[in-house]
C-alpha cells in the first residue's frame, strides 16, 4: 500500500513539474474556461496545450466538460494550490536566506 501511495504521489508531482502546466493551473484558478481562452493566454500551439491538459486531467487535477462545441476546463483538485503556496513559501525563504548571507559576505 505504501509503495502505491509513493508511486501515485510521484505521478501527481510529475504532472505539476512543467512550467506550462503550472501556468494552465494559474489561468484556471477559481474559474472555468474554454480551451480557446487557455490557448490565447499561453500563445502556444493547440496540440501542445492539449497534451498538457491531458496530463493534468489524467491525474485528476483538472476536469473538462463539453459545452456545445467548446471544451471547458476547471481545476478539480483545489489542494493543488496548497502545494503551490508551500513551494512558493519555501522558495521565497531560500531567496531571503541567500540574500541575507550575501549581504553578510557568507556565500
Could you characterize what this model shows?
The protein has helices at 2-16, 19-28, 35-42, 46-58, 80-104; strands at residues 33-34, 62-67, 70-75. Helix content is 66%, strand content 13%. A hairpin with a 2-residue loop joins strand 2 (62-67) and strand 3 (70-75). By secondary structure, it is an alpha+beta fold. Strands 1-3-2 form a three-stranded antiparallel beta sheet. It contains five helices and three strands, in the order H-H-E-H-H-E-E-H. It has two domains: 2-76, Orthogonal Bundle (Arc Repressor Mutant, subunit A); 77-107.
Average pLDDT level? 93
Report the CATH topology name of the largest domain.
Answer: Arc Repressor Mutant, subunit A
Q: Order of strands across the biggest sheet? A: 1-3-2
Number of strand segments: 3
What class, by secondary structure content? alpha+beta
- Compressed to H and E, one letter per element, the order equals HHEHHEEH
Radius of gyration: 17 Å
Number of helices: 5
What does the main sheet amount to? Answer: 3 strands, antiparallel
Low-confidence stretches: none
Provide a compact summary of the structure.
With 107 residues, the chain is of the alpha+beta class.
Amino acid at each position: 500500500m505504501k509503495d502505491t501511495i509513493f508511486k501515485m504521489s510521484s505521478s501527481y508531482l510529475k504532472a505539476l513539474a512543467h512550467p506550462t502546466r503550472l501556468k494552465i493551473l494559474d489561468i484556471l484558478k477559481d474559474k472555468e474556461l474554454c480551451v480557446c481562452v487557455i490557448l490565447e493566454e499561453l500563445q502556444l500551439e493547440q496540440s501542445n496545450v492539449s497534451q498538457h491538459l491531458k496530463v493534468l486531467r489524467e491525474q485528476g487535477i483538472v476536469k473538462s466538460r463539453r459545452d456545445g462545441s467548446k471544451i471547458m476546463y476547471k481545476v478539480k483538485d483545489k489542494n493543488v494550490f496548497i502545494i503551490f503556496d508551500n513551494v512558493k513559501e519555501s522558495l521565497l525563504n531560500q531567496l531571503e536566506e541567500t540574500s541575507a548571507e550575501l549581504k553578510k559576505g557568507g556565500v
